[in-house]
Amino acid sequence: MTKLVQSIQTILVVEDDYSIRETMREALETESYHVITAENGQDGLNKLRLASKPCLVLLDMMMPIMGGREFLDAVLADAVLAPIPVLVVSASSEKGRIQGVAEFIKKPVDLDLLLQMVAKYTGVK
Amino acid sequence: MFPFNENSGVVFPDIGERKKIESRVQTERQKFEAIFFNSVTPMAIFRGPEFIVERLNSQYEALLSGREVFDKTFLEALPDYSDTVIFEVLKEVFKTGIPKNIKSYPIYIKNKTSRKMEEHFLDGTFVRMDDAEGKPYGVFNHVIDVTEREKERVLRERFISTLTHDLRTPLTAAKISAQLLCRKITNPESGLALAKRIISNINRADRMIRDLLDSNRFKAGEGIPIIPEKCDLKKVVESVVRELKELHGPRFIFVGNTGEVLGFWDRTCLQRLIENLSDNAIKYGLQNAQITISLINAEDWVEIVVHNLGNPISHEDQKNLFNPYRRTDSAASSEHRGWGIGLMIVRGVAEAHGGKVRVESSQENGTTFCVRFPLKGKVPV
Asked: Quick one: DSSP state of residue A7?
């Protein structure tokens, strides 16, 4: 599948399950995104602050060490990170109870929907 | 009211009749006291609109953690209950005369041993008592401590919530992989890897369903049914480690300097045993650290050993580790929620093979689960 991407866009995937994390990475890389992965909220924050700022974050909620909610609180409290859109991808039924996120996608995820959402928030049409 | 005779005025009952009435009253009082003071459930009577504590049985006194409450008003005796549903219901029942039941209301009771305040849940019945003239006298309160039932309910709800979350995890990985496979059908190498991931994740979901079914068997007091066949335990362990690497990456390593370890085992059940111990190591062990699965054999036994680094399991928690739905304090408070049945299944599989499980856990050495099986002797047929 060919896609016109003006410059390589970076997406941060914060997900504790190896299988899901790696499959998401592969799916996004196939669409020519550059993908950084993190295994929990703390790892995600570290990578957000150290690596080049991504244009989008895909976030799981239930993770060890630091969950999605704490990650979101920290991101929203940081003026530099707060503008980055966050798509929550979660198996929990918390839709509507999570503030400060762009979209909520329920697991099991539909890949086409996920890529549509990603394209919407990265500006890739 | 005494009978009135038009001819002779008031007729007083004879002394024998009065004695009979007194005796009947005495019998009724004794019946009431026998029920009230010997009941295994807490009972109390609060008098008047200020709810003076008139009578309590010993069970009710225990609920109040030995406070001095007799002949005090409700608010003097229990000022900390002024904003509670109990006080509101007392007032309502006294005013309306309509009995009321309330379910699972929380109160704090001092533990006799630890002296710490603990949350309990009560079901309570409140009934107004009237005097001989039909005026409100007070409120009778009968309660049942339903703390255990409430704890079970919370555990059950947490279990269902974790169950649905966990089942969606492998389904998500399998679904995205399958959809990606459709897009990549032209690249056989990548397609094969995705197909393997789909199979591994469907197997993972299937194992969860099986664990769930087996947990019900355990609750019914049954053991895990096994079908032993002759197989090489080393091959079984190696195949599980391969699949764990597929699912969770290269952090799993197998250490086994043994040759073939032939015996009669249920291959599928042993796979589940190793998978469950490994899942625990992933969930509660140090993130990203190596997880080692070893096979050690001696002349008459063989051990499967699963080791991870990370916070230790306290001695207190180790006592309940293998009980259904009971999770350690550290596990229950962690973000990684579990079902609380994985280790129960490990024990069930070990015992069905005549084996035993032990755990060693410390800050320095991490946590090690060892499952020892006899190589001779008790092998179920």
From this structure: S
Question: What letters, b where the CB count within 10 A reaches 16 and e where it falls short, cover B204-239?
Answer: bbebbeebeebbeebeeeeebebebeebbbbebbee
Cβ neighbours of B335 in A, within 8 Å = 62-67
Structure tokens at B123: 């079901």
Q: What is the ipTM of this complex?
A: 0.77
Which positions in chain B touch A67 (Cβ < 8 Å)? Answer: 335
Residue A17 DSSP SS3: coil
What pTM does this model have? Answer: 0.57
**Dihedral of CA B306/B309/B310/B311: which sign?**
positive
**DSSP at A40:** S
Task: Tell me the C-alpha distance between B138 and B50, whole Å.
Answer: 9
Q: Report the gap between the CA of B163 and the closest CA in chain A (Å).
A: 11
- One-letter amino acid of B248: H
Any idea what DSSP says for residue A102?
Answer: S
**What is the secondary structure of B100-167 as a DSSP string?**
EEEEEEEEEEE-TTT--EEEEEEEEEEEEEE-TTS-EEEEEEEEEE-HHHHHHHHHHHHHHHHHHHHH
* Environment class of B360 (CB within 10 Å of its CB; exposed 0-12, middle 13-18, buried 19+): middle
Asked if the C-beta of B200 comes within 8 angstroms of chain A's C-beta atoms, the answer is yes
Please, what are the averages of pLDDT over each run of 10 residues along chain B (381 residues)? 52 76 90 90 94 93 84 90 88 95 86 81 94 94 92 80 80 87 77 80 78 72 80 91 85 85 89 91 87 91 94 81 64 59 88 92 93 70 38
- E strands, chain B, are 4-5, 9-10, 43-47, 52-56, 100-110, 117-130, 136-145, 229-232, 252-255, 262-265, 291-297, 301-308, 356-362, 366-374
For strands A86-90 and B262-265, give the pairing: unpaired
User: How many angstroms away from the CA of B166 is the closest CA of chain A?
Assistant: 8
Which of chain A's residues have a Cβ under 8 Å away from the Cβ of B336? 16, 62-64
The residue among A59, A58, A16 whose CA lies nearest residue A33 is A58
